[in-house]
Amino acid sequence: MLSNETQAIFEFLDVPRFEARWENSVTGSLSESQVFKPFFDSQRESLRQRLSESGLAFNFTLNDIRAIAAGEATLAWLQLRNTNAVCILIDTRGRDAQTAEVLQRIDAELKEHRGATMTKIDYRGHAVSTYILKKKLGQIKVEQFSYVRIDGRLIAADQLDAVKGLVDRIDGSGDLIKANDFVAVESKIGEGADDDIRWFVRPLGFARVLEARSGGLKKQQLDTIQLLQEQGFDAIRSAGGHVRLDDEKFDVRHQTYVNAPPTTDLPSKYKLAGRMLQFPNVDEQDPPAWVLPTVASYLDGNWKLEEAFWAAETLVNQAVGDEIFRRVVDGIKKDKDGPQIDLANDIIANFRERVIMLTDNVEPVSKDSERMLIGVLLKNEAVVKAAIDKAMKSDPNAKEFPYAHHNWIWQVTQPDEADDEIELEGFEDFEEFIDETDGKQATPLLNQWAITVYDGYLLFSSHAQMLVDSIEHQRQSERQALQDAPDFVRMRAALLDQYGPDRAIWRVLRSDRAFQAKYELLRRGELKQSDSVLAAIVRRLFKDSEDTPEEEDLKVDGAKLPAYDVFKEHLQPSGVTLKTEPDGWFLRGLMLKPIDAPAPNVAAQR
């Protein structure tokens, strides 16, 4: 029924079956357990109340869908001729009473909280109900909600034209399933009849819909979507995937195909900045010896970094509106007030393709417990070390971090009064690339970071001590290796068994370690104050937003959560692999079941 105007779909293929599998999965049983139920119930009610009082015209909750869906339930985002719409289609056969009850509640909430007026029209012999919501102060766009019930289906949308279009196609099929980009994804991932969730997206089109629904571009704001489209990222035409819960082997199994056929005949496949998307497949390798056995996540990938760096040139130049990229690179080398290093030849040209990314947590848990480390394999370690050393010595914010066994670790600390991005002396011209609609520079993702060269890698970390710990670990004659850790062994073996060794990127998440700091900070109400990169991004997203709820509305009541040891018992390792295909990428992932999987619970049996 969906037309080619559809930009994204999220679909539960069979809601009752999904519910049974969800409750029997480790993740689902967690939300239903007695110790966690008070927390999840409080969040559901908080979310329901906020949605009821928000600008979201139709207020279907997950509980509503569970109550009225006898089969599939589909959420879709459409780009219509002069507007956009979100629509929902639900198979309600045999659940007329429950459907009527949900619609009555929505009717009451829209009238009470949004001052809505309701009218009915006849369209092709079907009664379509339409609510027009009262405008808020200063609001220009009129919000609405329309729905119709036809032959055991509920069709609803926040635009009457979207409902009419779906009614027009009720006895046939829409043209989305015939579109080349949809067919390309479906031919790779299959129909997934026994899966639980299916989704499809046209990334740039969906981004336009979300942009419009959030109020559109602000004054003087960079049109990032247009920038990406014109710089070659429109090669990513579509993506889609399936999710299966609680199959015989795994708690969760998912796959995604990214449809990006080549746009040139060159080995790089894409044009302009799209050439950054080069991830060659290789056989998987053991983690480097300096990787700590206590890491929470391990990512091992192959990326043509040198080509990606130069491919970014046209992206940066177009974003700034000036041919700045080469000028800055040359300035770093020649400016007498800069570091005077040959960035292109001494650093970038010495990058190999292997990239390692790690995270871990240190105890006791505090706002700076989460640590990150990135390693890039090098061609000429000595040349890179000399260039970095020269750059650090010219940076007034850099100092050598004391460590007797490797006296070449540089730590950079941003001054408290400064509001600068992570930078080296002489790199300031790149600040023009940042979109600054308010005339201020963005807050830093990291207030402190460290860098070194060791064992053939350029190592960058959020914490200098993590570099010390990694080097000290490799120095030990009798050391534990990450690849010998039981949970890592299980997850790595599962990825190899299911998807083979040939891949561009693979990642293992040791969930019991990865969530510890976030969980403890959430319980204490301190997550937003964390110094992790994730927390910094959250702060940046919410900072100075006119549409952001008040600070207290953004808080999650973590006080209802039990101790972390209770939560930890439910966690299992997960992993993903990414493989480069001739016309795109395949992303596949798994979450393991417990070694001694629990018997199906009563809810699942029911």
Q: Describe it for me?
A:
33% of the residues lie in helices and 24% in strands. The protein is globular. It has a 20-stranded antiparallel beta sheet, with helices on both faces. Strands 11-19 form a two-stranded antiparallel ribbon. Residues 52-57, 418-439, 537-554 and 597-606 have low confidence and may be disordered. A hairpin with an 8-residue loop joins strand 13 and strand 14 (370-378). Helix 1 packs across helix 2. It is built from 21 helices and 22 strands. By secondary structure, the chain is an alpha+beta fold. The protein starts with 5 loop residues before the first strand and ends with a helix.
Brief description of this entry?
The chain is an alpha+beta fold and 606 residues long. It is built from 21 helices and 22 strands.
Topology, element by element:
Elements: E1 6-12, H1 15-24, H2 26-32, H3 37-52, H4 62-68, E2 73-79, E3 84-91, H5 96-114, E4 117-123, E5 126-132, E6 144-150, E7 153-157, H6 160-168, H7 180-189, E8 197-201, H8 203-213, H9 224-230, E9 238-245, E10 250-259, E11 282-283, E12 297-302, H10 305-320, H11 325-334, H12 343-347, E13 351-361, E14 370-378, H13 381-393, E15 398-400, E16 409-413, E17 448-454, E18 457-461, H14 464-475, H15 486-499, E19 502-503, E20 505-509, H16 511-514, H17 516-524, H18 533-542, H19 551-554, H20 564-568, E21 574-581, E22 584-592, H21 602-605
Antiparallel strand pairs: 1-2, 1-8, 2-3, 3-7, 4-5, 5-6, 6-7, 8-9, 9-10, 10-22, 11-19, 12-13, 12-20, 13-14, 14-18, 15-16, 16-17, 17-18, 20-21, 21-22
Helix pairs in contact: 1-2
